[in-house]
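Regression test attached.
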Amino acid sequence: MATGGKDYLLTPYRVLDLTGESGLMCGKMLGDLGAEVIIVEPPGGHPARAIGPFYKDEVHPEKSLFWFAFNTSKKGITLDLTHPESQKICQKLVRHSDIVIESFAPGYLDALGLGYAALSALKPDLIFTSITPFGQNGPRRSWKGTDLTLQARCGFQYLLGNPDRPPVRISVPMIAVKAGMEAANASLFALFHRNTSGEGQHVDVSAQATGIWQMMNASSFPRHHGVDQGRAGDRYNAGFGNARAILPCADGYVTFLTMGGHMGAPTLYAMSHWMENEGKLPDFMRGKKWEEWDLAKLATDPQAQQEMDDLNETIATFLATKSKWEIFERACNEKILAAPVNNVKDLVEHPQPNSRGFFRELPHPELDTEILYPGHWALMTNTQAGPRFRAPRIGEHNEEIYCRHLGYSQAQVQAWQQAGIV
Amino acid sequence: MARVFDGLKVVDFGWIGVGPITARYLADHGATVIRVESLTRFDGLRMAPPYKNAKPGLNNSQFFANFNASKLSLGLNMALPAARAVARRLCLEWADVVIEGFTPKQMRAWGLHYEDLSPTRPDLVMLSTCQLGQTGPYAMYAGYGNMAASLAGYYEITGWADRAPCMIYGAYTDMLTPGVGATLLAATLDYRRRTGKGQWIDLSQFETGVNHIPATVLDYTVNGRIATRRGNRDDRACPHEAYPCQGKDRWLTIAVFTDEEWRALVHILGTPAWVQAERFTTHAGRKANEDDLNRLIAEWTQSHDAEQLESLLQQAGVPAGVVAKQSDLYEDPQLQDWGFFAWREHKVMGRSPYDGLMSHLFKTPGDVAPAPLLGEHYEEVLKGMLNYSDEEIAEMVGQGVVEMMLD
């Protein structure tokens, strides 16, 4: 399914993006799907432009790779939302929009006359999506939330890290990305409803709630097993025994799941076969019926856990002599639950996404270069979705939006500029 | 109350995580979702923990139940031609949306590939999701989200710089991909509404993982920098760590990004002598002395109650968050206000907590219904939706075409 020349999915729609650093993913997704997304920055530039990494490590508001990464497919205008004149301008922008997304503290936009109540009076079928740490209501609605404190408060961090050290987050901020994606999803659900019923609405996204959906099967362990799951370092817990799952190999690490039972048996047969071929199959693995190797027993039976540890170490010793690619190829051909622990270089160079045209080069004429971006969101038979063009420069589309879309005169925009509104 | 997808019909051939969770987004918002599953080759999650009373059983897994809430279940032994014929009728005569999550060859083997269905049903919307996508040299790679997360670079960036990478609990790309899948489905359903055309969506879980760390990718493609794990460190913030508090394995995260937040923290600390030291007065100074600073803050936090300190810090404007255990989440007043956990009565498991909605659509809120037993809704589906007669249904049950486990 080649992507070239296909339509994007959301071309009829316009989105006004008022989000700060914690909501940028939402507008990116909608823009990558084809909506015209206009991000509003304060005069002087969006605070996210100060976030690194930077292009060639040059700290500059037009060179933030963080900004580039989360604002593809958006147009940009400047507007000081706190200025009294801005209310009118913003209202006009909203009349031209299907969806408004914002990530201010609850109540902030209401105080400026730009909250859902005011804007929906103006445009009743508006979708107004709010992304906040804890949601619009409740006792902690005004609490601050950062990636670290929210990964903690949603329970995910408790499950990550080595047991002898503090729990960790993933070293790259994830919760705003997850919350932004869920906000894009909820906005489109609301848009679907609007298009079938005519009714707009306020959509409230809680980053804490989205964070809980990172935890797979953990949240109901206390209810059903009377225990909390915890962090296990390089071992795999999640109620599947407790085997070491990150194993050193000849040129790095691989992930390997020692599970047994019906989910893990094919892997253990394939490993036995591979080890036998190389004369390295120990007797205790010979003729074993791996389906009957009871996962549930492992949690409570110390002898079963010992058996798993022995097996785990035997396989680890075997894999330590193999390369990541050798293991990956073998895993692919023989259905072994193993994968290399890739770093970003490995994944950018990986033949699989590259064979699918996943990465895209976007021109940055101001930097006299093209930058390689990830990537399409999927391959589709009739349409495409992925970054369409680079993030906007500060105020890049002021004239296009204010003059050509909204019909203000250039003299008017210049006057705003002098007053510091734009 | 109206729901977004009232009247929408979805067949869910999902398997394990991504397909079923994606279908649940639609089910919670009103779509009629038929989870097609099997007794002879049951979904692995039906025999995966947690189980009610920690006892394995096909209708006793909350792992399965959580991802399959709000759905109907039809059991089919797809090894039999008669079962495949039923599945085909569901797709061609009933469904608006088909979701599947097998390795690429499976649906083709059953005659249920998009190319088998779309000539009759050009308006069909179909989502196929697998580890590495439907095309390319490694399309047949089979695994769980643990594998795709490893391939997409997530374990390399989790843990401590001086240690081996850490596993991320669960199957991380399984947690990221459904949000993308449901978003693509919503956009495609709107496209279908406008054009009358459906389409096939090929969603790679590996690619989805990479798409969630775009700044990390650009730092490599532009600067050649290879990100690695760094505990809880963040260039922009200091202190930025989980600190030990009173009690067993009790931690409080504190994240200071601005001098204003630092001064507020100092005030709560009670301005001890060490904190006045010149080396801690600027962000650069704190960063240069981060190990010492973390040690000193930990000495202070360990004699405090985590939740009390969290409240105190938040009231002073310092970002702080207790590292919640799962059991803490049930009691979390904010999540209670949100109504996050949907406690529902399951026919076998009784009252169980389902993970609830991540967003509130105030006029069309959606809801969560308990998960089905294996094959529970065969009559409703076969008779009500496909008009099979009682005799035909009895015959299919007798021949093992239709499967179920109802206790």
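Expected vs. actual: identical. The mean pLDDT of chain A is 95.
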